[in-house]
Amino acid sequence: MRNPLVQAAALALAWPSICFAQNVASPPDPQTVVVPDLSRSSDPEVVANGWKYFFFQKNGVSYAEAYDDLNDCYRFLQPNSWASVKLNRFVPWNDKPGRKVDYIPNPYGLVGDLLGAMVEGTMARRDLQAKMRRCMEPRGYTRYGVAEEVWETVTKRPTEQSIAIQAKIASSPSFGGKVPVK
Amino acid sequence: MIRMFLGLMLTLLYFVPVAHAQSGDEMVEVTAGKPLELRADRAYILFRTNSVGVAPVFLRIPTDAEMKEFDAAKRAAFAKAEPNLVKKRNDLIAARDAAAKAGATFDKTIPPAPSVDDFNFVYDKIRNVQTVKMGRALEKTGDGRTLLVEVRPGNYVVYGVGFGDVFHTCLCLGSVSFSAQPGRIADLGTILIASASEKSDIPQLADETGFGPSMIGHVVTWAVAIRPATPSTAPPAQLAGKPVAPVDYRATGKFVAGFSFSVNRLAPIPGVLGYDRGKVLDLATNKVAENQY
Question: What ipTM goes with this model?
Answer without folding.
Answer: 0.83
